[in-house]
UniProtKB/TrEMBL annotation:
PANTHER family: L-SERYL-TRNA(SEC) SELENIUM TRANSFERASE. It comes from Blastococcus goldschmidtiae. The keyword Flavoprotein does not apply. This is L-seryl-tRNA(Sec) selenium transferase. It catalyses: L-seryl-tRNA(Sec) + selenophosphate + H(+) = L-selenocysteinyl-tRNA(Sec) + phosphate.
Length: 443
């Protein structure tokens, strides 16, 4: 107890590890989280007692308080950045339906077994079926680990030792130093660049075709825009120009919209891109589609078969939990990313006012402001989305991020902004709780 004098030598009174491990609540935690993890926590608590920062009598409570909620260290974070698909925050939050499907598939599961016959079954057939149902213009599909893997597979299977024709304006760096042209070249494909940074014409593509052409590649510049004196060749025009040449047209659309989205008129989608004449279309599963990390390849049956039979496919295929989550995302209720995209400014303001009421009642200097949001690395660069933020003094940002339930907002004009456009309405209460907790710790 803090009102008792500290013992002469705190080291003497440090509780032993096995004594602490024998405490029923600690023992239960060791069974759930693993003995080594709990021992690490115990060692830290013993260190604090030794340093006379903690009375020995509080050891058990301190251990229980310091235990992580799960054996993994990744923690749920409230995304108040205003960036809907935030790469640093794990991109798309999964729908409850997808999370349930993952849980169901996580143990031993019939991912490659036909339970009716007892024979080996095709892997991922249900997820593929869901993809084909969602994108009727596709004849066939496969799923790999991410869109970069899809590009690597396509470049290897269609372009190794041959040429991939691509516009100079589409040689994109996707983030963290990764560049699509370098990725393509590591597969042993040669890039045949056409046009200039700002302009390319159908004739440029046509002149580049030859006996060595493996494919023509169109990459959606999903994280930048080029404005001014520009010209690109749309998929439809390019497909028309390639007709009869036998050269496949592959379009990487990035974001994974299944169909055109009214709020994102510039963003290409899988269905329209195939309908316009692409032979294969590639996208991520965890951007605007709102599902698990995955790379989707859809299109012509013969080309998809070539990819599936390529040895590299085996190194890139996805696991049972990804297949489960993808299927549930496609067949289940509207996933969170799509809900966030659909949010209206009036709703956002009403939500923000409800949060504000709780904060001002506690005497916190808070306000509600309009604050633009964006889709994020996932697509639609420079396309502003309406957003509404709770504004707080700047000093809130760091403690909120480091709190029990971390909240990531951003600083603007010396205020901490918590933008609700990127947060599920069901998390508003937890956001307010986190702010109240920070404020309570200050008083
Ligand atoms: C994001 C993106 C990629 C990379 O996708 P990952 O799923 O992150 O591998 C590739 N191409 C485009 C056009 C993208 O937008």
């Amino acid at each position: 107890m803090s009102d008792q004098p500290a013992p002469e030598d705190p080291r003497r009174s440090v509780p032993r590890t096995d004594a602490l491990l024998a405490e029923p609540a600690v023992q239960a935690a060791a069974e759930r989280l693993g003995r080594e993890l709990v021992k690490d926590v115990i060692a830290r608590v013993q260190g604090r007692i030794r340093a006379a920062e903690l009375p020995a009598a509080d050891a058990v409570g301190a251990v229980l308080d310091a235990l992580p909620p799960t054996a993994g260290s990744l923690r749920p974070v409230l995304n108040a950045t205003g960036v809907l698909v935030h790469t640093n925050l794990g991109r798309a939050p999964l729908s409850p339906a997808a999370i349930e499907a993952i849980t169901a598939a996580a143990g031993t599961t019939d991912v490659e077994l036909d339970l009716a016959t007892g024979r080996r079954g095709p892997r991922g057939e249900a997820a593929i079926g869901a993809l084909l149902a969602a994108v009727p213009a596709a004849e066939a599909a496969i799923v790999v680990n991410n869109c970069a893997a899809a590009l690597a597979l396509v470049a290897t299977a269609l372009g190794q030792g041959r040429e991939l024709v691509i516009a100079r304006g589409e040689l994109v760096e996707i983030g963290d130093g990764f560049r699509i042209p370098e990725l393509l070249e590591t597969t042993g494909a040669r890039l045949r660049e056409v046009g200039t940074t700002n302009r390319v014409a159908l004739e440029d593509y046509r002149r580049a075709l030859g006996p060595d052409t493996g494919a023509v590649l169109k990459v959606h510049p999903s994280n930048f825009v080029v404005r001014g004196f520009t010209r690109a060749v749309e998929v439809g025009e390019l497909a028309g120009g390639l007709r009869g040449t036998g050269v496949p047209l592959v379009a990487d659309v990035g974001s994974g919209l299944l169909r055109p989205h009214p709020a994102l008129p510039e963003e290409p989608d899988l269905q329209s891109t195939l309908a316009a004449g692409a032979d294969l279309v590639l996208s991520s599963g965890d951007k605007l589609l709102g599902g698990p990390q995955a790379g989707l390849v859809l299109g012509r049956t013969d080309l998809v078969q070539r990819l599936r039979r390529h040895p590299l496919y085996r190194a890139l295929r996805v696991d049972k939990t990804t297949l489960a989550a993808l299927e549930a995302t496609l067949r289940g209720p509207v996933p969170p990313v799509q809900q966030l995209l659909a949010a209206q400014p009036d709703e956002l303001r009403a939500r923000a006012r409800a949060v504000l009421e709780r904060l001002t009642a506690a005497g916190i200097d808070a306000d509600v402001v309009d604050a633009p949001a964006r889709v994020g690395g996932g697509g639609a660069p420079e396309h502003p989305l309406a957003g509404v933020a709770v504004s707080l003094p700047a000093g809130f940002a760091e403690p909120l991020r480091r709190g029990q339930r971390p909240v990531v907002g951003y600083l603007e004009d010396d205020r901490t902004l918590l933008n609700l456009r990127s947060l599920a309405p069901a998390d508003d209460a937890a956001l307010a709780d986190a702010v109240l907790e920070v404020a309570a710790a200050w008083t």
